[in-house]
Amino acid sequence: MEMEHAVIQQQVVEYPEEHEVEVDVDNIMKTEVAYGSGVHSTAFRYKHKKRSKVWEEYKPIFLNGKVQFAECLYCHNRLSCKDSNGTSHLWRHQKICPAKSEAAAEGQQKDSYFPYVLVNGDGPVSPIDPVNQIISETLDDIGSATPSRFKSKVWKEFTPIYVEGKLQAADCIHCQKRLSANKFGGRSHLSRHLLTCPGRLESLHNHHKFLFEPSSAPSFNSRANDELSPALTNGKVQIAEYANKLPRISPSGDTIHTIQPIQMVPAHPPPTSDGASLKKQRTSFTNISTDKSAGKFCQETSYQELAKMIILHAYPFSVVEHEEMRRVIKNLNPIVGMVSHNDMKDHCTALFQKEKVNIKDVLALSCRRVSLSASIWTPDGPEPTVNYLCLTAHFVGDDWKVHRVIIKFGMFWSSPTNLERIIHCKEASVPESESGSYNVMWDAIRDWNLDQKILSLTSVGDVRNNANTVKLKEMLIEKKCLPIQGKLYNIACLDDILNSVVSAGQADILRFVGDAVMEFFVAHASSPSAQQQLLEVISQMSLKCPQEDAKWWHKFYFRLEVLLHFKKSFPSEEVLNLEDMNVAESICKILRMFYRVIEVISCPSSITANIYFNEVWKVRTVLQEEASNGNGEFSRMVMEMQEAFHGYWQNTYLWLSIPVVLDPRFKIGFIEFRLKRAFGTNSESYLSDIRETVRELFNEYCNPTDLPSAASNSAALDADNDLLEDWDQHLNEQASCQISTELDDYLEEGLVPRKDEFDILNWWMNHTTKYPTLAAMAQDILAMPASAVQSEAAFNSSGPVIPKHYSTLNIKTIEALVCARDWMR
């Protein structure tokens, strides 16, 4: 059977602007960007000329006769582009495109005039002071300003900075600190700086005399002698030069002064969306590079690493303006110049946009479906007044590994009566049209082109029960975006359900053993010797201590484990009476199972969906055992928890069972075994529903050419003039039988022996040729998540949190920081 995601080679067609191109549209492929470099589709009618000038920088990519992507002519990244989307994002990409910046820099280096002075090895040449070389905006009028402007001796230790031909600042050649300067201002502040300049004092200490007097030998550590300093600039290019004449010792022992050539270095301003202002030019990402023994230093690379540090550790942008931070960086490398917090924010955003393009390409080139998970995040701190919705994509890539990436972080809810937030967080306000579950998720689906690739949605209760989420599901079903009428959509988050089940028995649990457990720990915390005993017991336990903001039952379970281990380590001490001890052991057994199941399903490492059924079944089993073994009141409490769990089972048994059917070690036989033992004759309704859903999903995954439509069948039957209509009908029936045969052959084939190191994704990858349709199903189904949050947040009472200082930022900036942090990890 031909693979669904087979790649069809297409030709490149260039279209003149003044003529329309008409070509055949019979063989339009579903997706044109699969694994190649990306070309124009030959099957469309190019009716409308792209009037925006931004298209001079892009090549349109057509799918099914419509523009779907725009390929940058410099970096060849592909951006989503539909007729209704506009071109603002294309303009923004051009401002931060690294390949375009490199091309512009190369062009300037090739066409610009480079003033330099050749150094003759046989003797000195006449000195020329490059500090007084003033470069005009066009680099044509070198003599537009003369050295007579710089009469003060202080300019021998400062480099003038020109913007648009006017003096704006002065850079100290010793410490690279930038001070204000203009034509009519004084120079006293420059002289005062030299008195306290750490770089100048260090240089004086190294040379034992003033910087410009000849020395017996050059100091390798002197920044004024052997490193580049920023010099004249007009906002387009910057001149980097040696700031002082280097003394050279001749074989005879005489000191010879040589002049180093001026070097042209392109300026790389920070990527911004609104252009470079004068303020930003003063703190631009100047690409000053110098060769050192340890390697080549690059200013922009340093800022990129600093941006990664800020993102990964959630530091505020203002950290780059802290005096301590600047001092540390200057001590590590005096060449590095610090930037403002606004420039660092732009750099972090640019890093996010770059990574987003790469991940978009991965999803665009994949033919597989994506499962989504939605969770609610809050700012760290008490009583949050704003909630954020985090949307994560789960999929199995071409490497047959499970991947999870955050694709959207938007506003879910914000308190309209919080006056303090309105005053202090003006930038953080979000229009109603851009908040809420419907707007956030639908915006992400369109932005990432996932409308025809969604398989399932796993969400927490606040999202799942929201009316807007139900509205989005109805809209997706109407647009035929979901398989099998959305039966796998809007799945309940498993750890959210288990928390609800435990909460059903919270009052009884605390009533049974809450006071006794509290008395035990109060008694053993009263003396140092008792505390030491407790610490010894805890150190022997392989259990992580819960955080202070952990859920109540997680803390209570930890205390029960400590109590039971203490009783085992010190059997002579009376901990609880016999009845309370039995109840404590039963409650601990239930909570232990809940803890382990949540820990497995919300593990940060990627797991496959075939393990969820067995984990949920463990919870059902332990509740059933304790309900039958306990006393009257305790059994009643467990039965209430059973009822809450059964309601969850009724809504999720279908999606939990389908991955097990695709596990070659179990298949449908394991499901039949479990359900018949649990429900007896009532199990048949569950089993028939599972079989029908698996076959329905399989038929939708079949290639349309293998599964003829009713229209084509009727057309063949009505064609009286076709003498071979009976032959066509025979072929159609045979094709339908072949489709069913693949699923039947798999289910009838023997089971694979169970092994601990079994890799189900690797098994399906190796059996793609034998079961192509089922392999495609398995690649999508096995990526479905059971939890919308990771384990650390699953046990947290407030769920996932963002740093408190994030909440004062623009929602787009928060999204960039949260997503980039997730991708870097």
Automatic annotation (TrEMBL):
GO molecular function, one term: zinc ion binding
Metal-binding as UniProt keyword: yes
Keyword annotations of the record: DNA-binding, Metal-binding, Nucleus, Transcription, Transcription regulation, Zinc, Zinc-finger
Compartmental location: Nucleus
GO cellular component, one term: nucleus
Key word Transmembrane present: no
Pfam families for the chain: Dimer_Tnp_hAT, hAT-like_RNase-H, zf-BED
InterPro entries: hAT-like_transposase_RNase-H, HATC_C_dom, RNaseH-like_sf, Znf_BED, ZnF_BED_domain_contain, Znf_C2H2_sf
Main location: nucleus
GO biological process entries: post-embryonic development
Record-annotated BED-type domain positions: 49-104, 149-215
Subunit comment: Homodimer.
Protein name: BED-type domain-containing protein
Organism: Triticum urartu
Gene assigned in the entry: LOC125539788
